[in-house]
Amino acid sequence: TGVLDWNRKMRAPPCPPLIGACRPSRGSLPSVRKAKKHAARMGRSFNALWFGQTISLFGDYTALFTIPAFALELTSVTSDFTNIYAAENLPTLIFGFVGGVIIDRISRRRLAMVADLMRAVAFGLLALLVASGRTEIWMLVGFSFVIGSFAAGFNSALMTLVPSLVRPGNLAVANGRLALSQQIAFATGPVLGALLVRLTSFP
Length: 203
Known about the structure:
This protein is an all-alpha fold. The protein has helices spanning 2-11, 29-40, 44-74, 78-105, 108-132, 137-165, 171-199.
């Protein structure tokens, strides 16, 4: 009988009793709903940033088509187009070395607001200059450098600002929304620029 009892224990070990602490309690359900609610709400600060960044991106990618199209009206020299793109992207390389020091010394939110505002002012001044009919290719190169400088400052501030506006668990969602806005603007901005060029005439 001792051997039989040992074999039964080896073939079918007894199941442990259910422990109430292991079962989900009803009191934990509200906390789960609360967590989902917080995950769905990103906060007013981020929503305002997301909305403003979306509008700004549409302007950037519209200018991606309109500025070279206008440069084509001024010159047909290939190097001029190269100079425009180089002037716009050079500040990103320069700001990469000193951007961290600047961001640590001033408010990220203030830097983002000022940089984006100054970029809008630069675009407005460029539009007035084009409307005057006195634009030269070196002016486009200069404005491209100024716009690129403020864009580099804004992008550096944006990367460090977003984590301070949302909860750590919502950071991936926040970055995903910003990336979605960028992809939509990248796809539709040049099309909008082409329509503007088609419906208007350069001086």
